[in-house]
Write a structure and sequence with these properties.
Elements lengths: L2 H14 L2 E6 L5 E4 L3 H28 L3 H4 L4 H9 L2 H8 L5 H20 L14 H24 L12 E7 L10 E9 L7 E7 L2 E7 L8 E4 L2 E7 L6 E8 L2 E4 L2 E4 L1 E11 L2 E12 L2 E7 L2 E6 L8 H9 L4 H8 L7 E7 L4 E6 L15 E2 L17 E3 L5 E3 L23 H4 L8 H11 L6 H8 L7 H10 L5 H7 L10 H11 L16 H18 L6 H4 E3 L8 E2 L16 E6 L2 E8 L2 E5 L5 E5 L15 H5 L7 E2 L5 H5 L4 E6 L1
Parallel strand pairs: 2-5, 9-18, 21-24
Antiparallel strand pairs: 1-2, 1-28, 3-4, 3-20, 4-24, 4-25, 5-6, 6-7, 7-8, 8-16, 9-10, 9-15, 10-11, 12-13, 13-14, 14-15, 16-17, 17-19, 21-22, 23-24, 25-26, 26-27
Helix pairs in contact: 2-6, 2-7, 5-7, 8-9, 14-15, 15-16
Length: about 675
């Protein structure tokens, strides 16, 4: 090839290269701009690695089940379970079956991660796994798996078998129709409640490229968010949904199991799991047994118990996520949801066309009549799955006449006043509804009343509902105290309190101390009938003494209840939260752990978003800690200090680049 041809080729490569810009706002949140979706994914990989490289690499190890070979025996059971569910095996086996667009984005994302690792080798831990595209598929499976595994675990409990513990997952979500809002556009609140540490600590981002324009919360290690909104739609999810997974009780003899008229051999495979011991890795062989129903997870009284999970062979979660993120309208969204790759969830979708929509989502097997999937079913035949329910069978509603919906982990029956979604309508397949006529719990009951009364809702009012610190049924305790006619200042502090656990509230702290002084009755939401006047007086006396002895003068709720990074010396007062020990619950969900003399937030609101579905949407968002994991970064805990502790959310500048440019704190230009 002559020199002129080489020059032409070089120029074409240079001019064909795509420029990717990462603009970070005052809170270090990346706003990624590219020409193509693959270019945007490349920028996402770089940004995530820059902020949370170790967490990203840990997430990949968690998904494939190789944590214990690096972090020791405490992770052995975790690794065993991930190998049992074959996340890596399924991902590796099927990766090439994904469409070219999906594979292109995954590989571009990981190229961005690798670019950062190459530029900053000092930040790459010695235990970093080799980066492979299938890890994105495995991570997606791992993230959703706790839900179906937890459902099947509930079936095991009915057989008297204790399953592996699954972390609690909760959330709030709601939608208001245009005719109830001041801006005449739907308002969505997306408010997942998860741990603030580990794989569910969301990464906040805005990402633009090709068809993709999205703002929201991403799992670190995946290219773009799902919970959030595009230029056309919003997506929220809360725990709850149909019963998707089962347990089969197998008759076992001579390493065979009974099915129909035959005895089939129990299948098995063996792997080695590495366990770090000192400076060495001990490779322990483990054998997994399975029937055609699924892996055997327990034995009892000569019977084996196999878990049947309909997601076992699924690998197209990322393809569905792409379809959801790029949907232009509700019809497009339903088409994407119909892939049924997501776990059982209450999914709410709002659109810029004015729609509000709910589906009780899941990949739900068709069970034969007479079989009870809430407990182990006979594995010998008669209760075999008969396919998967089509999407149209799922519990769903579009544009309810009430003009609002909320689901804070509750039955569809109490999502709105006079809900048409009652269990009797689904009696033929009750597992699709998977809930009874249960009342709304505290968070849902308060939110339901607020939404039912809401008219001409503004952004400020929506924020107020999302961050509400109103304490459920505190008025009943105030009335009980009032009955004894107390005259001291401490009791008056509780009686004059506005029943909100705001950070600066002395009444909320006094109420908390009083409730905690009641012993076994502390957890009760309302005063029990057997609570005597003397019990109330004793509780007030004990709480008053504790306030004077253990707290500084002028102490308030936020003196005790704080938010900040675990292990950091910095923390700030915060309002709201669920304090089960004191029977205190607010719509604003925060759970606390005792740390020395304070209660430090550890879980709850993980990525609260308020979205007004105008054209284009306007949105506000906050995460509880900070975007960066670098302790020397100004974005390590800045959202905890400046936003979350103050019950504030920041503007996302979605599709408002001119406005964003006024708030840029850093710029990174990449060539993809």
């Amino acid at each position: 090839m002559n020199r002129f041809a080489v020059l032409l080729l070089s120029c074409s490569l240079v001019f064909g290269a795509e420029k990717v810009r990462i603009l970070r706002d005052e809170f270090g949140v990346p706003h990624i701009f590219a020409t193509t979706a693959a270019g945007a994914a490349y920028g996402s990989g770089y940004a995530q690695a820059e902020d949370r490289l170790e967490e990203l690499l840990r997430n990949y190890r968690k998904a494939e089940g190789t944590m214990s070979e690096v972090f020791g025996e405490n992770w052995f059971r975790h690794d065993y379970r991930q190998r049992l569910w074959r996340h890596r095996r399924v991902a590796e086996e099927h990766y090439k079956e994904l469409d070219a667009n999906t594979r292109g984005m995954i590989e571009a994302f990981q190229a961005g991660v690798k670019r950062f690792m190459t530029e900053h080798p000092d930040q790459v831990p010695a235990w970093a796994p080799k980066i492979e595209p299938w890890q994105v598929v495995a991570l997606g499976r791992y993230i959703i798996w706790g839900w179906p595994e937890g459902e099947a675990g509930g079936d095991l409990l009915h057989a008297g078998i204790q399953p592996d513990p699954i972390a609690y997952h909760g959330s709030n979500e709601w939608l208001i129709a245009p005719w109830r809002t001041a801006m005449h556009a739907p308002i969505a609140v997306i408010d997942p409640h998860l741990t603030w540490y580990g794989e569910f600590r969301f990464y906040e981002m805005r990402i633009y490229g090709g068809e993709l324009a999205y703002s929201g919360a991403a799992i670190v290690g995946l290219p773009f968010p799902t919970l959030g909104h595009s230029r056309y739609i919003s997506i929220a999810m809360t725990t709850g949904g149909p019963d998707t997974s089962d347990v089969y009780e197998e008759e076992i003899a001579d390493n065979k199991y009974h099915f129909g008229d035959e005895w089939r051999p129990v299948q098995s495979w063996t792997e080695k799991i590495g366990v770090k011991v000192g400076d060495k890795v001990d490779w322990k062989p483990v054998t997994f047994e399975f029937t055609h129903h699924g892996p055997i997870v327990a034995h009892k009284n000569g019977k084996a118990y196999a878990m049947a999970i309909p997601y076992a062979e699924q690998f197209r979660l990322f393809e569905q996520s792409w379809g959801m993120a790029t949907a232009h309208n509700l019809a497009d969204m339903k088409k994407a949801l119909a892939m049924r790759q997501y776990m059982a969830q209450n999914i709410m979708v709002g659109t810029v066309d004015g729609d509000i929509y709910y589906v009780r989502n899941g990949r739900v097997p068709v069970r034969p009549s007479g079989c009870d999937p809430s407990k182990p079913m006979p594995g010998a035949g008669g209760c075999e799955w008969q396919g998967i329910h089509p999407f149209e069978d799922l519990v769903q509603i579009e544009n309810p006449p009430q003009g609002y919906m909320q689901n804070c982990n509750i039955s569809p029956r109490v999502m709105m006043k006079d809900s048409p979604l009652v269990p009797e309508k689904y009696a033929a397949h009750s597992y699709l509804y998977n809930a009874g006529r249960t009342p709304a719990h505290q968070r849902a009951a308060m939110t339901l009343e607020q939404l039912a009364a809401a008219k001409d809702v503004t952004v400020e009012q929506a924020l107020g509902i999302a961050f509400s610190t109103e304490v459920y049924h505190a008025d009943t305790w105030q009335e009980r105290i009032r009955k004894i006619g107390p005259e001291d200042e401490f009791a008056r502090t509780i009686l004059e309190w506005n029943r909100r656990s705001d950070a600066d509230s002395r009444g909320a702290l006094a109420y908390y101390l009083f409730k905690m002084a009641l012993g076994e009755r502390s957890k009760m939401l309302e005063p029990p009938a057997d609570l005597t006047d003397d019990d109330v007086r004793a509780g007030l006396h004990k709480a008053r003494e504790q306030l004077q002895a253990d707290y500084p003068a002028g102490a308030v709720y936020g003196t005790l209840f704080r938010v900040g990074r675990e292990g950091s010396a910095r923390n700030w007062p915060v309002g709201g939260g669920t304090i089960a020990a004191a029977g205190m619950a607010t719509p604003r969900a925060i759970s606390f752990d005792k740390k020395d003399k304070i209660m430090l937030g550890r879980s709850g609101q993980t990525s609260t978003q308020i979205v007004v579905l105008t054209k284009p949407p306007q949105s506000w968002m906050v995460i509880p800690l900070g975007e960066s994991d670098h302790t020397d970064s100004s974005h390590f805990d800045d959202q905890a200090e400046k936003l979350f502790s103050q019950a504030r959310a920041k503007l996302t500048y979605f599709m408002r680049r001119d406005e964003l440019e006024k708030h840029v704190s850093a710029v990174k230009e990449l060539t993809y």
